[in-house]
Amino acid sequence: MSADNWTKCPKCVASAISKWKAKCSSLEQSYGKMSASEYMSKHLELQSAPCFEDTLREDYEQGINDGVYSVSYSGSCAACGFEYQHNFSESVHAPLENKEVNSNNS
Ligand SMILES: [Zn+2]
């Protein structure tokens, strides 16, 4: 079973928020140093937080094969190149119930 999906890139989101905060801080410091209309215009621009697009492509699959459960995930951002991978696998323990074990003895 495999799937793919697009979601928000954690690196792009963190970067955009950081830049937005820097612009807000810069605007605060420029209060009184620019015309009121210019200040209000920039203030309006920064009133809404940045919106984010789904730039991170996710590919993943999981399942049990030959008694081993495994999950494989990879994400790659089309905008900034950020990549993340995670792989995990373990043997599946499927103990027989007592009824099944004893049924051969009766
Ligand atoms: Zn990114």
What does this molecule look like?
The protein is of the alpha+beta class and 106 residues long. 35% of the residues lie in helices and 33% in strands. The protein is built from three helices and four strands, in the order βααβββα. The protein has helices at residues 10-29, 36-47, 98-102; strands at 2-7, 56-65, 68-77, 83-91. Strands 1-2-3-4 form a four-stranded antiparallel β-sheet, with no helix packed on it. A hairpin with a 5-residue loop joins strand 3 (68-77) and strand 4 (83-91). The mean pLDDT is 89. Bound molecules: zinc ion.
At a glance:
It contains 3 helices and 4 strands.
Largest sheet: 4 strands, antiparallel
- Strand segment count: 4
Ligands bound to this protein structure: zinc ion
How far apart are the termini? 41 Å
Mean pLDDT score, rounded?
A: 89
Tell me the strand percentage band: 25-35%
SS field, number of helical segments: 3
Shape: rod-shaped
Class from helix and strand fractions: alpha+beta
Radius of gyration: 26 Å
Stretches with pLDDT under 50, minimum 5 residues: none
In which range does the helix fraction lie?
A: 25-40%
Task: List strands and helices in order, with pairings.
Elements: E1 2-7, H1 10-29, H2 36-47, E2 56-65, E3 68-77, E4 83-91, H3 98-102
Helix pairs in contact: 1-2
The structure holds zinc ion.
Zinc ion (ZN) binds at residues 9, 11-12, 55, 77, 79-80, 82.
